[in-house]
Amino acid sequence: MAGRYGAGIIFALCLLLSIAANAAPPEPRQPAWVELTPTQKRILAPVAGEWDGMSGVQRKKLVGVTRQYPKMSAEQQARVQTRLIEWARLTRQEREEAREKYQKLLQLPPEKRQAILKKWKEYQRLSEEERESLRRKSSEAIPPTVAN
Predict the structure, then answer these.
(1) DSSP assignment of 127-141, as one string?
(2) pTM score, two decimals?
(3) CB of 138 within 8 A of CB of 147?
(4) 102-117 pLDDT tens trace
(5) Strand, helix or coil for residue 31
(6) Are 29 and 56 in contact (CB under 8 A)?
(7) Sequence-distant (≥ 6) Cβ neighbours of residue 41 within 8 angstroms
(8) What's the total number of domains in the chain?
């Protein structure tokens, strides 16, 4: 009796797992670098070296950027290129930290996100000398044990 009961539970679990696995279709495979169009390769050139090591989600987002790119203004296209270059220069750890900070930002209430965005825009309007001065003041305010 106990053997039948256990077998019934195992069968039910297998059935449930099979249904759950079939309920969410797998994410379509994203293209390898060699499969991208010449236009996509030109747009995504700054991340060419990392492309095949990226997750499917990252590739999907960037392929989406290439679809929107032709509709962007010259200024927006330049910003995309700058950001791709900056991203490609980051170490793996720096990228992970950036992702974590972004996820934390998304968790904030909208009014706090807006306040941060406003401060960021103000910072962007500063000259390079003013930015450097702020960075120095900021690093001086952080105790060495915390900064390192």
Answers:
(1) -HHHHHHHHHHHHHH
(2) 0.59
(3) no
(4) 898 889 899 998 998 8
(5) coil
(6) yes
(7) 33, 48
(8) 1
